[in-house]
Amino acid sequence: MTSPAPGLDARATAKTASDAAPTAARGAVSADPLYAQVASHYRQAIAAGTMPPGSRMPSVRALMGLHRVSLSTALQACRLLESQGLLQARQRAGYFVRPPRATRLARAAEPRQTEADPARFVGVHERISDILTRGLATDVPVNLSGACAHPTMYPIRALSLQAQRLLRRRPEILGTPPDPRGLVALRVALARLALDARIQLGPDQILITHGCTEALGISLRAVTQPGDAVAVESPTYYGLLQILESLGLRALEIPTSPHTGLSVEALEAAAAREPRLKAVVVVPNLQNPLGAVMPDAAKQALLACCEARDLALIEDDTYALLCDTPQRAIKSWDTTGRVIFCSSLHKTLAPGMRIGWMSAGRWHARVEILKYAQSRPNEMLGQAVVAEFLGAGQMDRHLRALRARLATQRELMAQALSDHLPAGTRLSVPAGGMNLWVELPEGLSSMALFDAALDKGLRLSPGWMYSNSDRFDGFLRINAGIPMDERQRAAIAMLGALCASMRRAQGYTAGP
Ligand SMILES: Cc1ncc(COP(=O)(O)O)c(C=O)c1O
Predict the structure, then answer these.
(1) Are 144 and 463 in contact (CB under 8 A)?
(2) How far is residue 319's CA from residue 199's CA, in Å, rounded to a whole number?
(3) Residue whose CB lies within 8 A of the most ligand 1 atoms, among 322, 342, 344, for a mutation test
(4) Ligand 1 pocket list (CB less than 6 A)
(5) Where are the domains of the chain?
(6) What atom of ligand 1 comes closest to residue 355's alpha carbon?
(7) Rounded to an integer, what distance in angstroms lies between the CA atom of residue 458 and that of residue 450?
(8) Dihedral over Cα of 415, 417, 420, 422: its sign
(9) What is the CATH number of domain 11-97?
(10) How far is residue 135's CA from residue 479's CA, in Å, rounded to a whole number?
């Protein structure tokens, strides 16, 4: 399709472009042709959300002036972005950022099984270690296996300035034993943050931990004995399975919808058959790996089920602040101290800092002592840096920007997957966060794809990791947290080609 000539209204749009990112293309030393450098400049601005869908691209004449390029270079840059689905040309009006295209991939399906299997001891250690070790041992240009955003999407400059100021002003924090419960200023700031999820807590009800991982481990130690059963979502975060295995607990995997989360009916039925069920661990907002958000009614029904059966409800809040629209925590309905709320700033503020926290209701005194026995307090510097950042009211602005960028990146990733993965692929694009859950067409194995893709420089997260069973070998979790660029696009195209060749080898003839 040939595009109409873009309009020549330079003034308003030139400002947008120079505001978006100053002269990245001009003077840059790059092997790419000039038009590709100009296109890459705007691709980054679109991916960053600086140029949201519907916004006008600078006119061709404005591009010529801004980047000191010829008419044909400016036009080629626009046409490249148009061919990549990022811009659309409007007759006599110029180029505009394309609104998200409906992907041609079908929506993720509801789980096939409606009943839980019996609780089983977890034996995932070997398979997960093998996948993680092989993945980490291979230096890859494109890594879609993580569950964090790109480091540049976190306020690392503000945090590092804060750290430097603190060390200058209060060097004694390096020589003073920290409060075992965590720095009080941080606990106050987190209690304030929890209000957004409608949770009322005092700082004395909060314990700072080494990430959510420690909070989950301590919670389970507080409410179970080896051999007990714990209900978890299926699929679930593999780190939770590793914790269950290390504590000698049995996992009762409950069918979980990619859209509405854990099935409370299936839990009710399974709980009636499992006398040693002691706890439920749930990620109600942006479940990992599915991205599901439980409706409020389901959250309340789950709490009621735990009350009726005297189960501890361990709520993992890791991703909740990344929801496009604010969601309530289950803890906000808890009037009896049954919910152990576990959270972390690892995905939302600072992946390098390992700051988590918990509020354990009726088990709080017990978890304080378990934490002290297990790892002693968190170090003070990181806590003080984060306390200052939160206390200065900078979190809201950071989270707004992070959510907007992730929304754009999810769309771009969904489009790239839709462009390259074979027909029959299904996709869940959640309302927040960075995790996309892909159901491969019948017959494709995520483990086979993991091996083949790793050989070609792409690290994936196979569905096989997210269960104690083999049920999810036909799935992949894809990280949309890294801004889309040509390398990622090429890696997704390569993934599509791998799927197609594996399908051909199995005798399927339909192309993507
Ligand atoms: C659902 C869930 N819970 C907990 C964690 C671990 O959190 P942290 O890194 O804060 O220990 C993760 C990390 O991926 C996760 O996805």
Answers:
(1) no
(2) 16
(3) 344
(4) 147, 211-213, 237, 239, 283, 288, 316, 318, 344, 346, 356
(5) 11-97, 100-150+227-352+401-512
(6) 10
(7) 8
(8) negative
(9) 1.10.10.10
(10) 15
Residue from 213, 233, 262, 293 whose mutation best tests the ligand 1 pocket (most atoms within 8 A of CB): 213
Structure tokens at 300: 């309340």
pLDDT tens track for 177-190? 999 999 999 999 99
pLDDT in tens, 276-329: 999 999 999 999 999 999 999 999 999 999 999 999 999 999 999 999 889 999
The 3-state secondary structure of 293-310, one letter per residue: ECCHHHHHHHHHHHHHHC
Q: Which CATH number fits domain 100-150+227-352+401-512: 3.40.640.10, 3.30.750.24, 3.40.50.1220, 3.40.50.620?
A: 3.40.640.10
Cα–Cα distances in angstroms (integers) from residue 422 to residues 18, 184, 408, 471, in the given order? 39, 53, 23, 21
Task: Report the nearest atom of ligand 1 relative to the CA of 354.
Answer: 10
